[in-house]
Amino acid sequence: MPVVTDRKGLGGPGCLALLAAVLLLQAGPVAQQPAAPAPLSPRNANYDIQVTLDPATRSLTGTEVIEWRNLGTMAAYSVRVHLYWNAFRNTNSTWLRQRKLAGDDSFAEAPEGDFGYSEIATIAVINEDGSVKADLKPVLRFISPDDQNPDDRSLTSAELPVPVQPGEQLRLRITWTGKFPKNFDRTGVIGDYYFVSQWFPKLGVFEAGGWTAHQFFANSEFYSDFGRYDVRMTVPSGWMVGATGTEQSRTDSGGTTTHRYVQDDVHDFAWTTSPAFIERRQRFEHPGLPPVDLRLLLQPEHAGQADRHFAGAAAALRYYGEWYGAYPYGHLTIVDPPFQSNSGGMEYPTLFTGGTRWLAPRGSNDPEYVVLHEAGHQFWYGMVANNETERGWLDEGLNEYSDSRVQAEALQPNYLVQRFFGDFIPWQFRDIPLKRATDTNWMNTYRRLGDRDALSTPTFALWPGSHQAQSYHKTALMLHTLERRHSWDVMQKVLAAFFSRWQFRHPQPDDFFAVVEEVTGMPHAWFFDQIYRSSNTFDYAIERFDSVVPSSRGLQESGGGLAFAETTATGTYRTTVVVRRLEAGVFPVDVLVTFANGEQARESWDGRARWRAFTFDRPVKAVSAQVDPERVLLLDTNYTNNSSTLTPATEAAATKWSLRWMVWLQDLMMTYAFFV
Ligand SMILES: [Zn+2]
User: DSSP letters of 161-192?
Assistant: First the structure.
């Protein structure tokens, strides 16, 4: 349970040292220097960066030294360096072209100052003493391996004069300038609030004999190796800074202050600065878990919501910590971005952005949800650092599924809120508590967009308008379906095993599927082939249901010949249920029939054929029939056709429907009122 503590002084990551000492003790006599923190990760991509922010020109100038070690088994003959801010250089960038495909033309009328860029001034291989070994600027070129867009400038490549052999280290020094784009898609500036992400020239990941480095697409997130980040940020004096890691020193010089932050065992570094933040601190403490110092940088108008931000972060640290494994860094910074900054809801190592409103009714998980979700990313994105550019679902979907469970455990009640008048005025529906299965797993978007792509499509190549439905919602529903088929206990073990085995590494989807099969002891290729490798959706329905006195007419054998006969049974009813598979997806389902005397009959069906008829001869009539009565298959896109009844619907069901209907109607009317 978190308790408030005083503001902590500047200092090193004491918790890491403690954790390292424990690890070293466990390691036994191999440990040479018990005082030195044991690396949690390979630390093969280390960045030493000095950067200065100039608010007058809204730009950065920086110098970085990258120490990169080749962990592979083959030599690297080149390096690939991302320049993410070039996504906002002009409307020909792959990023903006892709966004336009999905109907977002945000830069169509943009003035010059809205565009951003990243320009490398110098790039060189250097010796340990800093002297230049080889100037790479003459061989540096832009490449577009993913879409062959000759105008894209988000990825560069440079041939190396001498290849880097396995186990060898390369030192690069890069100087560059970066111009902030307008506040747009999680980076940029609004007023004097700066959110600085994907801001420095950054290496791709060298694996399987080549570089995994993609251009910057509108859907894609990021992928990098772990290392130590030692970053000095110079900003106007008096401005507050929040960053990955912890602050080591502050140095004033002529109206500016240089803040030095350091963090080991992370794969990215983000920061923010503004003169307007107010700061709050709490310490997360929970039995069995290492404490975490929480630092909250809040907009002044949200001062009354500090406790709700801490509650969201503490819920992630506690439940993910108990279920999957401990958060090891000892500190976590939450940034509350200003209204319309477009930087909310994004994760970075040991720091993330939330996002709240001035009006945020209690009893609904806004802002708790976004804080919980981004804090949860520390475990998947942060530690189980899979390739988000290609396999975003392995981070987002696992996180969405996990945070929906935390919301159900820890953040109740959670009532539906809809916003009106420009998405501003909230209206809380206290009659409608959100359901974990369908509401916090976002059934509504999956239902609309679940078949628009296969989940196995590289994330950057997903249709931009359906990426969320695929990577987040379809995956969450897939995992929740597995939970209903096995149990939460099994799923907790699956995710815990995946987390502990793959933290500080780079797992692939097959690594996750292997853990599912290992923990459940059952093959799951049939399941993942459909939900991961295809765009199939699922829909089982009751097509026909009746319960009548059986009768027959026609020719019957009689005395050596055939004679016409017409018979009607007495004391029995024949119940017929026809179940149909309406979509391509196949899943084993149960069929449950309830009779007038309360008895029930249950049949299992492998669900493979397009339809199947079940008949029951009983002395009583049937009253209802259901396919998948427990709703194991949450991926069924239409649950309203899963049941049929021979008696009028109950009053309770009618009330529930009318309430939903009212909400929908009210939403429609208020929206309409706003537009006219
Ligand atoms: Zn996310």
Answer: EEEE-TT-EEEEEEEEEEEPPBSBTTBEEETT
